[in-house]
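Justification of resources, computational component.

The compute hours requested in this renewal are based largely on the per-chain cost of generating structure records like the one below. Each record pairs the submitted sequence with a full structure-token output. That output is archived, and it is also reused by downstream analysis tasks.
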Amino acid sequence: MINRECGNYKRTYRADMALYPVPLQRYTIMAAVVTFYIIFPLLANEYALNLANLIGIACISAIGLNILTGYTGQISIGHAAFMMVGAYTAAILNSRYGVSFLLCLPAAGIMAAAVGSFFGIPSLRIKGLYLAISTLAAQFIIEWVINHWTWVSGGAFSSIYLSPPDLFGWIPATKDGEAILRYKYYIIFVLLAVAVVFALNLVRSRVGRAFIAIRDNDVSAEIIGINVFRYKITAFALSSFYAGVGGALYCFYYEVATYESFSLIISIDYLAMVIIGGLGSVLGAIYGAIFISLLPIVLDISGTWVGDAFFGGASTEILANVQVVTFGALIIFFLVVEPEGLNKLWRNIKDYFRVWPFSY
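The structure output for this chain reads:
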């Protein structure tokens, strides 16, 4: 009886603080772990593994942005710039000083957190659109520094090549592309699991409650004793740490660091991920990352099919432009239908089936 969802039967603090108190939720998580960590990597081909790896990296970075924008209410349009800081930090340490992959990741996160905290200082005095412009300036400043500071990037339009990601010096000896992708898949998704668990526990902690109070009303939060400036800087640091780790993973995945991979459009994509997935939700950031990553592929496949079926493939360029318009239209349509994002839509579906077939 104590496991039923129809009442509050928690008898210990441990049960009250559990992330997944309902047995069905725990079984769902176990099924997801088996699916994504055992079944999928063994059955997927190279294309599916490559796509899953990129989605995993996007999920890590999107969770970081959601901590800042969704939970703390600080708009950022320079998230890709902090990913760039992490990527070049890892690239310099690995290529020039031979630092191991496992040490490059935290170093990249710490450096990105330091830079993000610096650009988060204006958040004490400005917010909303003005803060967004401030973070946009960070995107241009960091990009300019990396391109013109020769010691960092080797000069404009230069690339830094990295060694494959190693685990305590061990690297797979195989040359099979699918095996290498599977190896990188496990690294990325283990780190994603750590990022998700940390974020879920963070937002339930005292720090997370302070973030939410600042998001709802920073003046009221300051009146009740919350150090608004300290927590805003903490939010910028945590968000940038996630971004730095995501950027380092991205450059290790492709084994090359280039500034073109972290342009302004990437920052906008991440902002779209957290808005569409659901602001103030860790799982919403994951849903948004999956949605934004898969939507262009789905549109490309459907556009190619329509072109071949009705136009004989002669209007490929026109269909490419139509796909871009469709991409924006679908985002607008989705936000109109469910402004609180995919996470809210999923909760509505769960709530419906929880009481089905009864309306109450």
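The first strand starts at residue 160 and ends at 161. The two ends are 22 Å apart (CA to CA).
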